[in-house]
Amino acid sequence: MAPFCITPPLRFYKSNRGIRLSNPSRRWLYNRLFLGGIGAFGCYLTLRYRLAAREASRNPEDGNCLCSSDMVDFLRYMPFNLFSNLAGRLAENESVPAWVHNWFARAVVYWYALDMSESGQKTNFETFQQFYVRDWTPKARPVDAAASVVAPCDGQVLAVNANVESTSLVQVKGLTYGMRSLLQDTPPPLNTDTHRRVAVVLHMRNKDFHHVIAPLSFACEKSIYVPGSLLPTTSAGYHWIPAVLALNERLILQGRSSDKARLPVYMALVGSTLTGRITLYMDKRVRTNYLDPPAYAVHSPYASKPVVARGERLATFNWGSSVVLVMDVPKSCKPLKRPGDVVKAGEALFQF
Q: Which key words are in the record (predicted)?
């Protein structure tokens, strides 16, 4: 008797070898190719960003990792502003339980190894935004009384231009951007026999306090809100995106020093990715981080020209960003910091 065996089931199918790529049955292939292309492009952007971060840490004055103008246009079309606005709303949303906000705060403290002994409030924050804009203790940020100009904020020095001889500022080696495009104004002519123009760029990191103080006593004549993008202004972004400071949303304070020389002083508070808004204490009417920003710069002149004392609180960033300081100083001025240095608000920045 023949052994019992199971006959395999019959399968009727058509080989895919003869199906053209335009056939709807191969739609799965298009989806995988599309998603794979997006993933590969994302990996490429991440790699370029990390290479720029490496250059910023090892050679902070070089500019070998700058992207092309086409890439800048692509980044400006990405919804950084919308994402930053939504992140800011979530960070200060009181409908979210407080323990969720505090969990994220503890995660940031652990990840960045924050020194909470310098904070006025250490725990039990109502929102994550309250943690991010926490105040420092009075003794944590003393203002150097012997310094001519002090650091306006905590952060890392991205660039120091000790002698600006033209109307452009040097971002990195081989790349400049116009002062007028950044400040929305052209500084007055400079007497090169007795004075020179200096500029410094500082970036507030996630581990830093996000308050801005006056680097010297000056009379504020005008504030200018300039709408723009919210591209990353980290040390990596500074070495990757050309003229990123002139492309981003910013708030500019224009004035003159309160001494007899009455030298021009410019401070540009530049927004960045995840920057919720900028709070200006001398003028609470100023708004930033619009979802539908105006198509023009908003100038707000101050007839009273309020005098801001050195070390006085000027503004607060809701999440980190960058500060650009441009000013005229005596020719004997000596910069005390170099690109890559880490500073704290109130430390000596220039001496003359």
A: Decarboxylase, Lipid biosynthesis, Lipid metabolism, Lyase, Phospholipid biosynthesis, Phospholipid metabolism, Pyruvate
* Enclosing H/E stretch for 71: helix 69-77
Which residue among 74, 108, 132 closes a domain? 132
β-bridge pairing 218-226 and 298-301: antiparallel
- What range defines the domain where residue 121 resides? 83-132
User: Can you tell me the mean pLDDT for 83-93?
Assistant: 84
Query: Which residues, including other chains, have CB under 8 Å from residue 172's CB and lie 6 or more apart?
Result: 61, 62, 63, 66, 159, 238, 239
Q: Are residues 183 and 156 in the same domain?
A: yes
Closest CA to 113 of 242, 209, 207: 207
- Report strand pairing: 334-335 vs 278-280: unpaired
Asked if 214 contacts 159 with a C-beta cutoff of 8 angstroms, the reply is: no
Two tokens at 57? 């840490």
Task: Look up the pTM and report it.
Answer: 0.86
Number of domains in the chain: 2
- Asked whether residue 163 falls in the same domain as residue 91, the answer is no
Q: Answer yes or no: are the C-beta atoms of 224 and 286 closer than 8 Å.
A: no
DSSP string covering 183-200: HSSPPPP--TTTEEEEEE
**98-120 confidence digits (pLDDT tens):** 999 999 989 988 998 888 888 88
